[in-house]
Amino acid sequence: MTNNSSLVRVKNLKIGLEDGTELVKGINFSMGHERVALVGESGSGKSLTARSLMGLLPGSLLVQANQFELLGETVLSYSQRQWNKLRGKQVAMVLQDPKYALNPTQNIGRQVAESLVLHQSLAKKIRIEKVEYMLDAVGLPNPAQLCKMYPHQLSGGMGQRVMLAMALINDPQFLIADEPTSALDHAVRDQVLELISSLVEERNMGLLLISHDLQQVADHCERVLVMYQGQLIDQLAASELSNASHPYTKTLWSCRPNIDKRGEALPILDRKQIASLTGGAVR
Amino acid sequence: MNLIELNQVSISHVQGSERNTVVHDVSLTVKAGECFGLVGPSGCGKSTLLWALAGLNPNWSGSINMLGQPLTAGKVFSGDLRRRVQMVFQDPYASLHPKHRLRRALSEPLKLLGYQDIDDRLSEGFKQVGLAENMIDRYPHQLSGGQRQRVAIIRALLLEPKLLLLDEPTSALDMSVQAEILNLLNDLKEKRDLTMVMVSHDPEVVDYMCDHAVTMKAGRIDTEKFYN
């Protein structure tokens, strides 16, 4: 079970529209019980890749792959019923914005308990205990009181913690976090990332963390995958980022403004150069 | 020269008979040609302050002097001020009319002011922010987030403002696109002799961009900082 490359194995994954436009253009990667960041600009296909691992792509998209294994199972041809058994139990996801991802009409306790009801048959008392334990584990105060509250009564950071509690309550083996901090305040971002990575490490899970801010995720991950326009253009260890060789990775790494860069232009992407590089790499 | 002078300004949100004061006794000055930063966590009143400076919230007390002209509380902007103060909003997806092509959305204020050479001005604007001119006949949904924010900047600059108010101009954008927009703003500031007031929750952006910044906390100014 702790075999280190068994969580996800993807070979030549292609996601395209029905008219033949390819959005993800044949990517290969595998990961085990480790923390991996998937980085790229919006439109680079990183969210599509993550959603394909959850079986959450809309039916109008075509998914093809030579190999598409999740937890050792070939899931490419899974039916919705088979996905339902897997999702929320062994694979879970944290979305970008708690304001939109949580159900505004249900209280927190009910929403967190939902995946317990779906995947485990527990007595009500044990279920409530478990929900409160989980809310406590993600660092929320007063779990019993919180269970009766509704999403609009929470701040963004608290909402994101609730979402994390929902994802982790069934002890999944693999967590996908799709830009979990983009909708949050700057000060809260590091706290939430810190929480995610420490919980993941404690439970020996695999984490796929999606982001567009390379510097921020670098501290919380062991390995980084870089996507650009549907292609996986670079893979490297997080500790190697400061001497990355690929120009795109280099720019992403250095484009964050700070006080030392005052008065000089920030590095920006030379899209032509990158296009010629990636074009060359594929063909 | 001081472009903005605030003295003991408090700002409230009024809804029906309820009045909620969000900004308390703020005094500050912004010099011409400066990039002024307003930093703070969400809910600290920084955007409220900016909206009042844009004339979008007349419910303030104290004294505000803008571009050498004293404002009257309770009244919206009038005269030249309406052109000389322009704003760029946070969310580029929400700030352009979804059913108007860019040409129509951008030329509206120019028509209102009776300009003749609208098309020339528009294409000049597109050139300045680094967008292809043929994009002008597109709809907003056909642009990426960074391109939309550029269009929002063109819109603000078309009226040749003296003061540009920026409400978290890059927080909805990718890190790499943020770098492009910040470079563009620095460039424009130099070329057009603009004064900018920028709201951000990212202290690093403010450290990079601004000459003078205040940190706000619960509606009051917490610290003031000058960069040399």
Overview of the structural elements:
The complex is a heterodimer of chains A (283) and B (228). Chain A is an alpha/beta fold and 283 residues long. In chain A, 37% of the residues lie in helices and 22% in strands. In chain A, strand 10 and strand 11 (231-237) form a beta hairpin. Chain B is of the alpha/beta class and 228 residues long. Chain B contains seven helices and ten strands. In chain B, the strands form two sheets. In chain B, strands 6-7-8-3-9-10 form a six-stranded mixed β-sheet, with helices on both faces. In chain B, strands 2-1-4-5 form a four-stranded antiparallel β-sheet, covered by helices on one side. In chain B, a hairpin with a 2-residue loop joins strand 4 and strand 5. In chain B, helix 4 (118-128) crosses helix 5. The radius of gyration of chain B is 17 Å and the shape is globular. Classes of the chains: A alpha/beta (283), B alpha/beta (228). Chain A binds chain B through residues 41-43, 156, 185-187, 212-215, 251-252, 255-259, 261-262, 265-269, and chain B through 41-42, 144-145, 174-180, 182-183, 186, 201-205, 207-209, 227.
